[in-house]
Write a sequence for this structure.
């Protein structure tokens, strides 16, 4: 079982856009935390069609509600026209709103009312370590942390369904791309680039489309909350450093499925890749839930020395390795970074079970790292 740590109640002030990829648990969270509140689910086809024809009906339905009444509209991007009505109800009647959705793309494309800055945007991420009782690391590395996927031993069928629904409802239904097969192929190739520097030309060649098309496809992933970029650390001291961003799918289980990695084993490169992704996923969620403004970037030199995560202006450097015994070669990137940024805190996260400090580097067992992260001891 799990209990979400996102404190939606304390973050709510007049209005909130609650975004999150499909099946991260937005609807479940809102129904649990706000039982008895007015709730409209726009995934209901009949209600969605009705509001599309009669958006003013929302104003009529809420006309007798007192100021401060909370109204929840789930999947608001399905009927963006309602936002004009929401805005007027907030201004004229003092009603409060939570507007949830799995995509900001349709709101952007339609030029929908963003409520004049009154609605604070928040993100619900996949499950994170402190939310899961009896956390199983290898299951998380394989299945990812979407609730329905993590909670079963083998999530392959559920991941297959997840991708099919995304392609049909987010891509085909919304008319986002002309060639659905090309986009599906792109998603698979993008998974190979997961955690790697983006090279649009190479990806385009593998997909059989133009680099411009690939860029537009990545933007669709970002807008539908299925992926994000980690920028390169740009402060150059001695070594020439890479400037291209890295791409990550929002959940490691999705990346595994798209690459056909259905049975990861410790000690393999594929496991190491997924392990790194999971740790980055936790860092991203911690940063988002705690409204941390410090930048998160990665560092890589042209002679291939790299560090997976840099916090702020070289305040903390984190390297992630799935090794069960840390070797000298695993520390090379951190040591090279430390030569240029001697005041930086150095952390190496691994499967080595004994957390300790060796020279200037903190060697932290991954579960200890998760505990320290969510206790506020890393940022």
């Amino acid at each position: 079982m799990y209990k979400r740590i996102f404190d939606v109640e304390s973050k709510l002030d007049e209005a909130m856009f609650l975004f999150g990829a499909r099946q991260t648990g937005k609807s479940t969270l809102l129904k649990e935390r706000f039982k008895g509140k007015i709730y409209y689910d726009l995934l209901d086809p009949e209600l969605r069609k009705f509001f599309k024809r009669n958006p003013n009906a929302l104003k009529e339905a809420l006309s007798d509600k007192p100021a401060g009444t909370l109204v929840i509209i789930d999947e608001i991007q399905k009927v963006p026209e309602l936002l004009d009505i929401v805005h007027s109800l907030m201004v004229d009647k003092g009603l409060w709103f939570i507007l949830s959705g799995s995509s900001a793309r349709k709101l952007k494309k339609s030029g929908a009312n963003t409520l004049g800055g009154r609605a604070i945007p928040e993100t619900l991420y996949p499950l994170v370590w402190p939310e899961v009782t009896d956390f199983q690391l290898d299951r998380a590395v394989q299945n990812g942390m979407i609730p329905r996927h993590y909670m079963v031993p083998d999530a392959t069928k559920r991941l297959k369904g997840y991708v099919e629904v995304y392609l049909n409802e987010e891509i085909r239904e919304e008319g986002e791309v002309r060639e659905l097969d090309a986009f599906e192929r792109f998603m698979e190739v993008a998974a190979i680039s997961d955690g790697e520097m983006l090279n649009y030309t190479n990806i385009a060649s593998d997909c059989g489309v133009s680099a411009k098309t690939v860029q537009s496809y990545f933007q669709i992933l970002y807008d539908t909350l299925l992926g994000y970029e980690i920028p390169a650390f740009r402060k150059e001291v001695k070594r020439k450093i890479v400037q291209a961003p890295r791409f990550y799918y929002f959940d490691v289980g999705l990346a595994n499925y798209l690459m056909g990695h259905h049975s990861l084993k410790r000690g393999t490169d594929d496991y190491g890749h997924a392990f790194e992704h999971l740790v980055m996923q936790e860092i991203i969620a911690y940063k988002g839930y705690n409204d941390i403004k410090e930048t998160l970037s990665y560092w890589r030199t042209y002679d291939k020395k790299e560090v997976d995560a840099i916090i702020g202006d070289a305040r903390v450097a984190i390297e992630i390795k799935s090794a069960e015994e840390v070797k000298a070669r695993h520390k090379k990137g951190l040591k090279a970074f430390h030569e240029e940024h001697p005041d930086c805190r150095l952390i190496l996260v691994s499967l080595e079970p004994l957390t300790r400090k060796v020279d200037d580097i903190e060697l932290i067992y991954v579960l200890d790292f998760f505990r320290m992260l969510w206790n506020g001891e890393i940022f």
